[in-house]
């Protein structure tokens, strides 16, 4: 028995790959071992990811992120130039929480935890750059950045994935 899976398991039998295997392989043992073979193949594929596919996804994510930033900056620059001219002069790439929320609902623009996290850290970096250390807004940004980092670390532990690199203003 491969990977400890049984074809009687409804989760295993729900894989479309098992059905595809049964349709393409004329093998008398397919009903009994099909899900196990598919599970073994999927396990092996995890060790050998499609590098070209990953690169294409990364390039697409970078393009989508650039579109997101351009849209957010265009709207934000107009507002900030009128209401906060000093902020606009100091902060070259402003971002608002509202924009992070709005664009995080669009999976084509924010399609990973990393992209979402980058936006938040960008917001925190802007706060640290514009506001005075010790000010209430500066302290709130520090607190929220700590909460974000801690939450990401906890989630990575629960889901057994590598944790985020802890972001500080120094390594941005």
TrEMBL record:
It comes from the Eukaryota. GO terms for biological process: chromatin organization. Keywords: Bromodomain. InterPro entries: Bromodomain-like_sf (IPR036427). This is Uncharacterized protein. The lineage of its organism: Eukaryota, Fungi, Dikarya, Basidiomycota, Agaricomycotina.
């Amino acid at each position: 028995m491969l990977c400890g899976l049984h074809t009687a398991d409804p989760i295993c039998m729900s894989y479309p790959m098992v059905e595809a295997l049964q349709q393409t392989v004329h093998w008398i043992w397919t009903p009994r071992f099909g899900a196990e073979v598919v599970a073994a193949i999927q396990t092996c594929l995890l060790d050998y990811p499609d590098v070209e596919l990953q690169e294409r996804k990364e390039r697409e994510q970078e393009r989508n992120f650039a579109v997101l930033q351009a849209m957010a900056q265009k709207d934000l620059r107009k507002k900030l130039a009128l209401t906060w001219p000093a902020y606009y002069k100091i902060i070259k790439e402003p971002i608002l929480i509202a924009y992070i929320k709005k664009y995080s609902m669009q999976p084509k623009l924010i399609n990973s935890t990393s992209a979402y996290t980058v936006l938040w850290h960008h917001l925190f970096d802007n706060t640290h750059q514009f506001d005075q250390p010790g000010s209430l807004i500066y302290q709130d940004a520090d607190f929220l950045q700590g909460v974000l980092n801690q939450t990401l670390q906890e989630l990575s532990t629960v889901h057994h994935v590598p944790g985020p690199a802890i972001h500080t203003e120094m390594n941005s």
